[in-house]
Design goal:
Elements: E1 2-6, H1 10-21, E2 25-29, H2 38-41, E3 45-46, H3 57-67, E4 74-76, H4 81-92, H5 97-111, H6 114-122, E5 131-140, H7 143-148, H8 150-158, E6 163-167, H9 170-174, E7 184-194, H10 197-210, E8 214-216, E9 220-226, E10 229-235, E11 238-241, E12 244-247, H11 253-258, E13 267-276, E14 287-289, E15 294-299, E16 302-311, H12 321-333, E17 343-351, E18 358-361, E19 367-371, H13 377-392
Parallel strand pairs: 1-2, 1-12, 2-8, 4-16, 5-14, 12-19
Antiparallel strand pairs: 3-7, 5-7, 6-7, 9-10, 10-11, 13-16, 13-17, 14-15, 15-16, 18-19
Helix pairs in contact: 1-10, 1-13, 6-13
Pfam family, one: DAO
Organism: Roseivivax halotolerans
Keywords: Oxidoreductase
């Protein structure tokens, strides 16, 4: 079977590798370098316990106050509000208790075995060198802040990730990089991180080629469709025939999928990071600073501070306020971290209103989607790729893919 995969982020590369390993003749189409966008700019953490929807009732209640608080990790370019409001209203319909439970169960399927999924993908390849097992730490200012997060921690425990509470002087004994502004930790085992996300995805793309796949460096412009079936891809003006096409192109997926009649409500969650050359003052494992909702991760080229959620579309450049928040919060949590060495980045995380990705075939067209992972793209990429490859190649996956199907958007 000849298959094209459009998009060489972690989801696309993972899909291409597993399709190739299951016997397909696979072409990976990417105009730039593999792993150069959101897959490069993320926090690097394998967030196996990230089983809460991005937007639930509690988050919606807090949102107005957060938008007015310079130290809250939610930002909005107000001129963009009229455009994003319909998406936000649609997302609010999924904030009820029953929907949150349904979505959480579907997220568990994709993320809870993230470390093992990455190991299965990368084992024996150059990419394996970037993969680390580690604790994942939530750092709180004090016991009051820890207690306020009890419901979220309980959800993680029910998903298989109980935590050890550390407080007082033991905080700095656990990780000397943490300053006196951190008074309590919730430490979870069985997580991990990628020490250089961009290099990791690049190495996986090289693995794909070494295993017999083809990388076509071109911009996918259109799909070739006839009688509701996909027959190929037009990229940089050249048409090539394929029996199946997988669209994993992040925000660029929307226009391609629209050609098959799917109006995908894909929005951008703008994420930010600061990359510091200093490692001495940073944590020894991924640490979520709860007050700023960002993660500090040790990497091969320094410490990365990443997170923040901003709605602002694709046309506006980076805002200054998110970088300021990262600097202020990091200075409190890690007082010996040299923030003057920071390199700034802003990128786009593709998001769907029910906090779940699109994963599956669009009707019976031979066109498949793999997009919309919000903030868990790196975490869930390998599992997504394997499930998609198994389903596309006619092997029944051992999980129900219905929660991720295109028919929830009125198609298929």
């Amino acid at each position: 079977m000849r298959v094209a995969v459009i998009g060489a982020g972690i989801v696309g590369v993972s899909s291409a590798i597993w399709l190739r390993r299951l016997g397909a003749d696979v072409t990976l189409i990417e105009r730039g370098d593999p792993g150069a966008a959101a897959s490069w700019g993320n926090a690097g953490v394998l967030a196996a316990s990230a089983v809460r929807p991005s937007l639930d009732a509690a988050a919606i209640r807090r949102a107005p106050g957060m938008l007015l608080d310079r130290d809250a990790p939610l930002f909005l370019r107000w001129a963009y509000l009229p455009k994003v409001l319909p998406w936000l209203l649609r997302a609010a319909r999924h904030a009820g208790q029953a929907e949150v439970a349904r979505i959480g169960a579907a997220l568990e399927t994709l993320v809870t075995d993230a470390v093992e999924s990455h190991e299965a993908l990368a084992k024996g390849t150059r990419a394996e060198a970037f993969l680390r097992r580690s604790d994942y730490v939530y750092a709180y200012q004090d016991m009051r802040a820890y207690t306020a997060d009890a419901a979220a921690l309980a959800i993680k425990a029910r998903a298989g990730f109980p935590h050890e509470r550390i407080e007082g002087r033991a905080v700095q004994e656990y990780d000397p990089a943490l300053g006196p502004g951190i008074g309590c930790l919730a430490v979870m085992k069985d997580h991990g991180f990628i020490a250089d996300p961009g290099a990791y995805v690049s190495a996986l793309a090289q693995t794909f080629e070494a295993e017999g796949g083809m990388l076509w460096r071109a911009k996918a412009q259109h799909l070739v469709l006839e009688d509701g079936k996909v027959h190929g891809v037009i990229a940089d003006g050249e048409t090539r025939a394929y029996e199946r096409v997988v669209v994993a192109a992040g925000l660029g997926s929307r226009a391609l999928l629209a050609e098959a009649g799917l109006d995908l409500p894909l929005e951008t969650e703008r994420g930010y990071h600061l990359q510091l050359s200093d490692t001495a003052g940073g944590p020894r494992q991924p640490t979520m600073v709860a007050s700023g909702q960002f993660v500090a991760t040790p990497m091969t080229d320094g410490t990365r501070l990443a997170g923040i959620l901003e709605f602002g579309g694709t046309e506006a450049g980076p805002s200054r306020a998110p970088f300021g928040l990262l600097r202020r919060q990091a200075a409190k949590a890690f007082p010996n971290l040299a923030l003057g060495t920071a390199r700034e980045w802003m990128g786009h995380r593709p998001a769907l209103p029910d906090s779940l990705p699109l994963l599956g075939e669009i009707g019976q067209s031979g066109l498949w989607g793999a997009v919309g992972h919000h903030h868990v793209g790196l975490t869930a990429g390998p599992k997504t790729g394997r499930l998609l490859a198994e389903a596309l190649m006619g092997r029944r996956p051992n999980v129900d893919l219905a929660p991720y199907a295109a028919r929830r958007f009125g198609h298929g």
